[in-house]
Amino acid sequence: MPFLSGTELEKVYSEAKESGYGFIASNIAEPNTLIGLFEAAEEKKSDLVLQMSNSASKFAGDGNPLTGLRAMSNYIQELAENYDFGAFLNMDHLKESNMDFIKATIDEKLASSIMIDASKKTFEENVKISKEVVDYAQGSGIIIEGELGKIKGVEDEETASAEAFYTDPDEAVEFVDRTGIDLLAVSVGTQHGVSKGKDIELREDLVKKIDDALTDAGFNTPLVLHGSSGLVENQIKKVLDFGVCKLNKDTRYQYEYARAAYEFYAEHKDSIIPPEGVKDDREGFFSDTDWSPVKSDFDPRVVSRKIRGEVKKTASNLFEQAGSVNKSLYME
């Protein structure tokens, strides 16, 4: 199944909202996390929503975000040809300062959707900036996500907000009406970065009020929760009943990536690091001693397979919680 456009993604979200399930939108910056996610989606027969931020694109492009996005978008498209589920790419937390990048993404159709984050601006400025992106994307097949309210914590290597400001249901209706956005990210108690479900005061009541207000106004707008890495299963399942179709996960995958690598190298330390008393002669591969490192333990492909396996396991569990298992619109 080829990499799909926002037109197909809109159908996927519409079906999810109508049926009361959602999608884990998984952030990536390099191939190991990406491949682990593909393997999870195939096993669970779930369509797959991937995400890249501006900083992830810069990382992939050695400092040039457009180069990185082109490379990763093409990688995703080529990889997707080997699978039957629908694969989508959302650009996460792009700002007004990224407008040239946003327009290039739309012009070259490098993504399925774009999230424009002007939530730190005033309401009127947020409307203006978000509508500019919606208008520019018209006819491109790329759908647009906006954000209303401020979510506490750190995202995309910068502080999102020192404190949370909850989304107002009436403002949500006005925002959707005036901007024409396709998805709405709301602030209802989640936090970016490292957060614990037990410490999050998730306002399920507010999620419902926002969804009800939009529905009463004639909008079938899917809701999005950013900063959802700390949510536990029962919290995820509650919000799926109230119009949430997309839950962003980034920090969780980063932690699983680090744990998999750390645990592998810690277990194989003695076959990689020379023992005490042996000169650290890397250039000569320790030619003055009988000790040698074990290639099968330091080959990066070996630890990469471990990482991919942990990402797959984590994503598979999250897909179960979100209810997208066996729900692919594209698999037989």
Question: Which CATH architecture is right?
Answer: Alpha-Beta Barrel
Number of strands: 11
Strand order of the largest sheet: 1-2-3-4-5-8-10-11
CATH topology name, in short, is: TIM Barrel
Oligomer: single chain
Largest sheet: 8 strands, parallel, barrel
Which percent range fits the helix content? 40-55%
How large a portion of the residues is in β-strands, by DSSP E? 15-25%
Helix-strand string: HEHEHHEHEHEEEHEEHEHEHHH
Overall tally of domains? 1
**Cα separation of the termini:** 12 Å
Classified in CATH, the superfamily is Aldolase class I
Mean pLDDT: 91
Number of helices: 12
Taking Cα atoms only, what radius of gyration do you get, to the nearest Å?
A: 21 Å
Structural class: alpha/beta
Secondary structure blueprint with pairings:
Layout lengths: L5 H14 L3 E5 L3 H14 L3 E6 H7 L4 H16 L6 E8 L4 H9 L5 E4 L6 H15 L5 E6 L3 E4 L2 E4 L7 H11 L3 E4 L4 E2 L11 H13 L6 E3 L7 H8 L3 E6 L1 H17 L27 H4 L1 H23 L10
Parallel strand pairs: 1-2, 1-11, 2-3, 3-4, 4-5, 5-8, 6-9, 8-10, 10-11
Antiparallel strand pairs: 6-7
Helix pairs in contact: 2-4, 2-12, 3-4, 7-8, 10-12
Description:
The protein is of the alpha/beta class and 332 residues long. The protein has a single domain, classed as TIM Barrel, CATH 3.20.20. The chain has 12 helices and 11 strands. The chain has helices at 6-19, 31-44, 54-60, 65-80, 99-107, 123-137, 169-179, 204-216, 233-240, 251-267, 295-298, 300-322, and strands at residues 23-27, 48-53, 87-94, 113-116, 143-148, 152-155, 158-161, 183-186, 191-192, 223-225, 244-249. Strands 1-2-3-4-5-8-10-11 form an 8-stranded parallel beta barrel, surrounded by 9 helices. A 3-stranded mixed sheet has the order 7-6-9, with no helix packed on it. α2 (31-44) runs parallel beside α4. The longest helix is centred in the C-terminal third of the chain and has 23 residues, at 300-322. It starts with 5 loop residues before the first helix and ends in a 10-residue tail after the last helix. The model is unreliable at 159-163 and 193-198 (pLDDT under 50).
